[in-house]
Amino acid sequence: MSPDTKINAVILAGGSGTRLWPLSRLQLPKQFLKLYGDEVLLEATISRISDYVLKNDVLVVTNEQHAKGEAYDMLSAYQTLLEPQGRNTAPAIAVAAAWLQKHSGADPVMLVLPADHVIQDQAAFNKVIEQAIAEAEKGALVTFGICPTRPDTGFGYIKTASIESSNNSLPAERFVEKPDVTTAEKYLAEGNYFWNSGMFVWKASSILKQIETWLPEVDAVMKQITAAWDKGEEPQQVVDRLFSSMPNISIDYGVLEKVAGNSDDLLVIPSNIAWSDIGSWDAVHDILNKDDAKNLLQGNVLALDCKNTLIHSSNRLVTAVGVDDLCVVETADAILLTKMGETQRVREVVDSLKQQNAQEHIMHLTVKRPWGSYTVLEEFPGYKLKRLTVNPGAKLSLQRHQHRSEHWTVVAGTATVTCGEKIMEVMTNESTFIPAKEMHQLENQGAEPLQMIEVQVGSYLGEDDIERFDDKYGRV
């Protein structure tokens, strides 16, 4: 690795994390949760590469819903590229590569990493990172092939032409889909099949050249985007306008599988790095510390005579007596019960909730916002009760609602309230009324958190009944 090499990181943080429901939700998926260690997974991913990439050289690719919603605080610390609509990894990586070239004025080596993986062997990871950067400097596309420890049917595999290599970088021969058990056992025995980690290293110019060759539909839109940038248009606004016209396709399927079948430009570095994609509750159970009976107990949990369980409590006391091989995950509004070994099927639950238009797969009862948080206390047809916490110095957007009125009661602190042309101070144990269709704003000018109870009354109480006119957090 040359000391003059410019290195940037592209962190892919747009996933939905459906298999870790009910803890992971659409508006706050697993990459923004603490599932292993003291950091949320996104922050742990960035910390892991801090020896190679400065914080200012990290680009997080995510969606607007996360960046201006529940993940606002953690994402505001980094450069972000916001996808107006999910288009899978190929368009995201293409725009990120061009974005880095424009902003760095160079042709950087890109470390492309999912935001939601766990790597427990940092020293081994550093070694493969350095090897990958050295190969990328020479123009290769590099991916980390995880050395399989079991015949897992939950991962795609990459086959290499040989397991013999003096420098441990193997040309990729082909990608294969998730196998059945018999086929996975065969892969494990042959020794030249590796789990597809979804982690990549390459120069920006190298991947853009391959995208031009194998994905002309993506390349055509990229040329429009870069042309608009060259004319001086604001980069994110150009992405907002053009990104969604790209096809929905992964970098693996759209580019890497084709490169593997036609050249030696794609290298696989076999990686023993204690890796997990934390793709299910079974995976969480595998990587975290358990008691002697293989129970993983998190939160307010009491388990008697249980074996091989995962029991997670976010709020209430959860007790279990004499159960084996059971996964229980409790949150304020949902409880998951499933057998260990079948937690991959949680995705089916989320699919069913989507079909029912249920809110439980979208958000928790307590929802973070850039200004603080709100908790839904009760909801019935025609009215809803919330508890609002507004941080010191924070304020909600200037907004109005078409279908609901709001009654605000301050229980701690002092609220500065704009209602139409009127501005007032509402003290503790005082209240005010916001009529439907009235422009209004709430602010906490104090030094302590503002706590309020909000009662909404109206024919429609959805969160999308908000028309914003001004907002310090860019959500207009």
Terminal residue distance: 44 Å
Query: Which class of secondary structure composition applies to the elements?
Result: alpha+beta
Uncertain residue segments: none
What is the CATH-assigned architecture of the largest domain? Alpha-Beta Complex
CATH class of the largest domain: Alpha Beta
Q: How many beta-strand elements?
A: 28
Q: What percentage of the residues does DSSP assign to strands (E)? A: 25-35%
Total helices: the number is: 12
The strand line-up of the biggest sheet is 18-19-20-27-22-25
Based on Cα principal axes, name the global outline. globular
The helix fraction, in percent, is 25-40%
Nearest-integer average pLDDT: 95
Count of the domains: 3
Short description:
It is built from 12 helices and 28 strands.
Using brief descriptors, characterize the structure shown.
25% helix, Jelly Rolls, 12 helices, alpha+beta, 28 strands, six-stranded antiparallel sheet, 3 domains, 476 residues, Spore Coat Polysaccharide Biosynthesis Protein SpsA, Chain A, globular
Write the layout of secondary structure elements.
Layout (H helix, E strand, L loop, with lengths): L6 E6 L28 H8 L9 E6 H4 L4 H4 L3 E5 L5 H16 L4 E6 L3 E2 L2 H16 L3 E6 L10 E4 L9 E7 L4 H10 L2 E11 H11 L1 H15 L4 H8 L8 H12 L3 E6 L3 E2 L4 H7 L8 E3 L2 E4 L5 E4 L4 E4 L4 E5 L4 E5 L6 H10 L10 E4 L2 E9 L2 E8 L7 E3 L3 E9 L2 E5 L2 E5 L4 E4 L5 E4 L6 E9 L8 E4 L6
Parallel strand pairs: 1-2, 1-4, 2-3, 6-10, 12-14, 13-15, 14-16
Antiparallel strand pairs: 4-9, 5-11, 6-9, 7-8, 7-9, 8-10, 16-17, 18-19, 19-20, 20-27, 21-28, 22-25, 22-27, 23-24, 23-26
Helix pairs in contact: 4-7, 4-8, 4-10, 7-8, 8-9
